[in-house]
Amino acid sequence: MSEAPKFLRPVTAPAADVGHAVTFGPGQPLTLDCGKTLSPFTVAYTTSGTLNAAKSNAVLLCHALTGDQFVASTNPVTGKPGWWTVMVGPGMPIDTDRFFVICANVIGGCMGTTGPAENDPATGKPYGLSFPLVTVRDMVRAQAMLVEHLGISKLLAVVGGSMGGMQALQWAASYPDRVRGVMPIACAARHSAQNIAFHEVGRQAIMADPDWQGGEYQLQGTTPSKGLAVARMAAHITYLSEAALQRKFGRNLQNREALSFQFAPDFQIESYLHHQGASFVDRFDANSYLYITRAMDYFDLAADHDGHLAAAFGTNAPRFCIISFTSDWLFPTAESKSIAHALNAVAANVSFVEIKSDKGHDAFLLDEPEMFGAVRGFLNALGGA
Amino acid sequence: MSNLRPDLAAIAAMIRPGTRVLDVGCGDGVLLEHLVQTKGVDGRGIELSQQNVNACVARGLSVMQGDADTDLSEYPSGAFDAVILSNTIQATEQPRLVLEHLLRIGRRTAVSLPNFGYWKVRMALLATGRMPRTKNLDYSWFDTPNIHLCTLSDFLDLTRLCDASVVEAHALNEKGESRAMDTGTLNSGRLGGPNLTAPGAIFLLKKEATQTPAG
How far is B185 from chain A (nearest CA, A)? Predict the structure, then answer.
């Protein structure tokens, strides 16, 4: 059943572990919120640590918008370290000496899990825009099938930041009996108007690029690199804070003594954003970006329950530890608090931690000792219970 | 097995097994954990300090990082069997509002507080002419978190303003050991000797009259 994942881009780090993939055949279609089904479909994932005999130490990590399954190991395509090496590994807060850590690329992604860049078996051509719209709930459905495939009936915890946090919340709502504890970090129970607005700017940038070719750029042999880079640049600003930008860049000039009186990047911040955009297009698929941002926009846990967030969580809700960061203006603390209040209303076991940081939304990916303390403590308490 | 501080042990003794308990200003969670482990309570906490919240999470407790002055309004009425406010009321910005919320949220409210009417405090003010610093209240006036200090008599007056009656009360000595006070005297509005002799006290209160949910 387990196979090697197929990546869109060539592997540049041959020594790196490519992880695993599982294909669910025609007998196990993925039923999507849009009413369509996806079949067959593949989920690419990595694991680290060892599953214990009781299968009670599995922790599912959910990645953010542009993340992937290479959470703690070298990404074989980019050759860069995993995206959460500060958090996951031997002796780390999510301790792979104790826990069996699973991380899967989301449905709609572009790192081996079925997404719009994959070939549609019905046509033999890339799905492109014929790929069905997917939701966070669909992503979680696919993860639940993977977890079942791995023979795990109950996860110790589901942990994720940003869109990964949305998935953690969705796990609690969809499969409360299959997880003991959830940790949604720097996220919200719904995507705000402001967040949808930023995503729409990104999507329009991609679609305005002539090389996007109506979504058929693979068939046309083009890549909408400029559009995707602009989308990434705009989004990247939302992941930082004004204070962090000021501290890191200020008005410093890039490789020059004086203003150029031209439009080439004068300022370090411009150069930094250009770099972020350029390196992103080397590893991410433009249509995947459209689909996954849309999935986040559609996320509204309360809407699935007549507008009552509390109703999303039953009396059998797992334990919660919700984390926010003071300078995160993309998913501000108030969003996390409203989740905590909804959980309190159903008498769920919920802890809420607001961490002081000036690093903005991306703080969840960075060295934040108080976050590490909360994660370590929560998992240890779950593990010992 | 319990190494609970005596004043906390006295609060713990007021909590019935198996009940729902909210500890407001729960610190590092030592009392809440004790209640969960020895009395099987369904315990929740609110705590301002990030470090303390992490300590609580590591104990497996459910604690919200938050502020009694602003966050209590979000809790529904009658949500808890008992609410605890241990050595915190004097540090709140609006003690009356906080107490009213506690009496609303919990069917019983346990409050412990230092007594600014304690004879050593009175003597210190009289003798030095400066704001007293004692073992329990060891801060300069300009950097103390205790912005609303009161005497036990003052506190008793506040409970009456909030239409609360005293179910049980204990005067604490300097070691934190407790001695029961007469609730009849307290509920007639008089505090008596402990206002002078006790460095602190614990009150178990309930809201009078107005309908409370059955059960």
Answer: 38
DSSP letters, A321-335, are EEEEETT-SSS-HHH
Q: Is B105 helix (H, G, I), strand (E, B) or coil?
A: helix
pLDDT, tens only, A178-228: 999 999 999 999 999 999 999 999 999 999 999 999 999 999 999 999 999
Give me the total of CB pairs closer than 8 Å, taking one residue from chain A and one from chain B: 62
Please tell me which of the candidates A340, A345, A353 has its beta carbon nearest to residue B54. A353
A7 and A118 share one domain: yes
Helices (H), chain B: 6-12, 30-39, 50-58, 68-71, 95-105, 119-128, 152-161, 183-187, 194-197
Measured CA to CA, the distance from residue A358 to residue A377 in angstroms comes to 23
Strand bridging mode B164-172 / B62-65 = unpaired
Measured between CB atoms, does B72 come within 8 Å of chain A? no
Compute the distance between CA of residue A113 and CA of residue A166 in angstroms, rounded to an integer. 19
Amino acid (one-letter) located at A133: L
Global pTM reads 0.92
Q: Take residue A25 and report the two structure tokens written for it.
A: 């055949």
Model pLDDT for residues A40-55, shown as the tens digit of each residue: 999 999 999 999 999 9
Looking at chain A, how many residues does it have? 385
- To which H or E segment does residue B166 belong? strand B164-172
Tell me the residue range of the domain where A238 lies.
195-294
Give the DSSP per-residue string, A195-221: HHHHHHHHHHHHHHSGGGGGGTHHHHT
CATH architecture of the domain formed by B6-115+150-206? 3-Layer(aba) Sandwich (3.40)
Q: Is B145 on the interface with A (CB under 8 A)?
A: no
Q: How far is CA A254 from CA A234, B32, B85, B121, in A?
A: 20, 55, 56, 64
- CATH at A374: 3.40.50.1820
The Cα–Cα gap between B87 and B108 comes to: 17
Instruction: Measure the CA–CA gap between A8 and A111, rounded to whole angstroms.
Output: 7
State residue B41 phi and psi, 5-degree precision: -75, 160
Q: Does B61 touch chain A (CB under 8 A)?
A: yes
- Tell me, what's the ipTM? 0.84
Strand boundaries in A77-225, DSSP class E: 88-89, 94-95, 100-104, 155-161, 179-185
Measured distance CA(A114)–CA(A120) in Å, rounded: 9
